[in-house]
Amino acid sequence: MFRRLLLQVAMAAGVVHAQGAFEAASIKPAAVPAVREGGNRSRVEHTPTSLTMWNISLNECVQWAYGVESFQVSAAHQGSDSYDIVAKTGAPVSVSQLRTMLQDLLARRFKLALHRETRMLPVYELVVVKGGPKLAAARPDTSRPLVHAAESLPRIRDDSFLFSDVSMPECARMLAQLRGVDLPVVDRTGIHGNFDVVLKSGPSLAREGDAAGLFALLPAQLGLKLAAAKAPMEVLVIDHAEKPSEN
Q1: Alpha carbon distance 20, 224 (integer Å)
Q2: Residues 172, 111 contacting (CB under 8 angstroms)
C-alpha cells in the first residue's frame, strides 16, 4: 500500500511538471531580419502538443505568454532581436497551459523578471456604429483547423488589408499596428466568433499617412469605428531579461 501511494504521488508530480514545462524547446535567432512591416511579420502557431513562433521578439513572447496586448508590456530597454521558437509538450494541453509553459520557458531561458502595474492609458475603442456591423458571416467552428495560426499584421492583396480568421480582439490588435493609428486599440464590439475581414484601399492610405481616410474606411466598409478614450490597463513591466540560454 505504501509503495502504491508513493507511485501515485510520483505520477501526480510528473503530471504537474509536464503541465508546467515543455518537454523540449528550441530557441534560435530568427531566420529573417527583424522588420516589423511588410512580409517579415511575426507568426504564432499552436496545437494541443506544440507551440511554434517565427520572427518573434521577447516583448511579443511576453504578450502571448500572459495574454496581453503590445501596449501592456513596458521595458526600459527594448531590444530588436527576434527569435524562432519551437516547443513540444509531453501530452496534449490547453491553450492556457501552453501560455503557462511559455512563461516558465521565458523565466528559465531569458531570465525574465517582471511585475504588474495599473496605468491610465489613451486608447482607441473599436465599437459598432449605429446601424450595426457590416461583417461577413462568422466562420463556423467546424471550419477551424486544429492548428491555429495568428500573424501580427494583416496581409495585403490588391490594395486591401486582409484580416484572415480573426476574432475582434485579434482584429483590434492588428489595427493598432497600422501606420497612422498610433494608439492601442481595445475591442469593445461585443462581437464573438472569427471572421475574414477585408479593408479595401487601406494599404495605400496607410502608406500615405492618411489617418483620417483610414479611419473613415472602418464605418463605411465594416460598420465599426475607432473612438478615442482612456482606460485603466494592467501593464507588465519587464525588470530584467537576458539573451536566451543555449538549447
Answers
A1: 40
A2: no
Q: Give residue limits of the domains in the chain.
A: 12-117+235-240, 120-232
Task: Give pLDDT tens digits along the chain (247 positions).
Answer: 444 443 343 334 344 344 579 999 999 999 875 444 444 678 999 999 999 999 999 999 999 999 988 888 988 666 789 999 999 999 999 999 999 999 999 999 999 999 999 999 999 999 999 999 999 888 886 555 566 667 778 899 999 999 998 999 999 989 998 888 888 899 999 999 999 999 999 999 988 888 899 999 999 999 999 999 998 889 999 999 999 988 8
pTM reported for the whole predicted model: 0.65
Query: Residue 102's closest CA among 94, 70, 178?
Result: 94
Q: 47: Cβ–Cβ under 8 A, 6 or more apart, which residues?
A: 146, 147, 148
